Amino acid sequence: MKVLLTGANGQLGRCFQDRLPADWQILATDSAELDITDLAQVTTAVSTFKPDAIVNAAAYTAVDNAESDVELAERINATGPANLASVAAQYGIRLVHVSTDYVFDGNANAPYTEESPTNPLSVYGRTKLAGEHTVSATAPDAIIVRTAWVFSEYGNNFVKTMLRLGKERDALSIVDDQRGCPTYAGDIAQAIIALLHQQAAGGIYHYAGDKEVSWFEFAQAIFTVAVQKAVLSKAPTLTPITTAQYPTPAHRPAYSTLAGDKIKALGITLSDWQGALNKTI
């Protein structure tokens, strides 16, 4: 299989390349090599490489910055996927597009299914949802994978931030009233590979960690492992706080646990994020 990968230098892009099956070919591109917001560039890349599938791991993910950088977030999260979907449909190529739990408002009290009503609270969430809509409308057989709280050994993420702060500070205050599922980027990559292998039906799939926690509980887990692995000599003192005590430019869902029953029915297991956390650290 020939795969055109966008966002090659991001967490998911790097992990996808690490796990690429030996008999697959890949054209791994970042924004400097392929600007997905430029339809002509996308058309040229696809017509030249002739992939069997496109995996769109490119996204504007700076949630707070997006509140003031609306135009760029829209171009990368909505216009880019629209271009990829248009060219994929034109050439009969399978598109896998990655989306987010932030398309939900967090008012639910049970895990969100693929059919749950969306109501994003932030520019990031709204632009990602716009990307979903245009992909679904333009390339109906496209696969949309919603995921959450992504971490890995690459890029910037909560795990790496906690490890850095743990070395710099003796005490940290962590939000404890937002709940979701941490997800290892390597597991997302494996899930996408499995969906392509199986030639899964188009539509939305939820793929996230197998255990729900708060950010505070996630931080506790990170520091427990970090001390066990001698990455840190001791854990900082952690204090749980509310979202109101830690205001940010973007509103985040208080509850964004994703139900994974649809993807599990295909034999794809959810992310064992605790096991992956050990390996990542």
What's the layout of helices and strands?
Layout (H helix, E strand, L loop, with lengths): L1 E5 L4 H8 L6 E4 L10 H11 L3 E4 L13 H22 L2 E7 L22 H16 L4 E5 L2 E2 L6 H11 L2 E5 L3 E2 L2 E2 H13 L5 E4 L6 E2 H14 L8 E5 L19 H4 L8 H8 L1
Parallel strand pairs: 1-2, 1-3, 3-4, 4-5, 5-10, 6-9, 7-12
Antiparallel strand pairs: 8-11
Helix pairs in contact: 1-6, 2-3, 3-4, 5-7
Function: Catalyzes the reduction of dTDP-6-deoxy-L-lyxo-4-hexulose to yield dTDP-L-rhamnose.
Cofactor: Mg(2+)
Keywords: NADP, Oxidoreductase
Explain the overall architecture.
By secondary structure, the protein is α/β, with parallel strands linked by helices. It has one domain (2-157, 182-211, 257-272): NAD(P)-binding Rossmann-like Domain (Rossmann fold, 3-Layer(aba) Sandwich), CATH 3.40.50.720. Helix content is 38%, strand content 17%. The chain is built from nine helices and twelve strands. It has helices at 11-18, 39-49, 70-91, 123-138, 158-168, 185-197, 215-228, 261-264, 273-280, and strands at 2-6, 25-28, 53-56, 94-100, 143-147, 150-151, 171-175, 179-180, 183-184, 203-206, 213-214, 237-241. It has a six-stranded parallel beta sheet, with helices on both faces. Strands 6-9 form a two-stranded parallel ribbon. Strand 4, helix 4 and strand 5 form a beta-alpha-beta unit. It is globular, with a radius of gyration of 18 Å. It starts with a strand and ends with a helix. The mean pLDDT is 97. Residues 1-280 form the RmlD-like substrate binding domain. GO terms for molecular function: dTDP-4-dehydrorhamnose reductase activity.
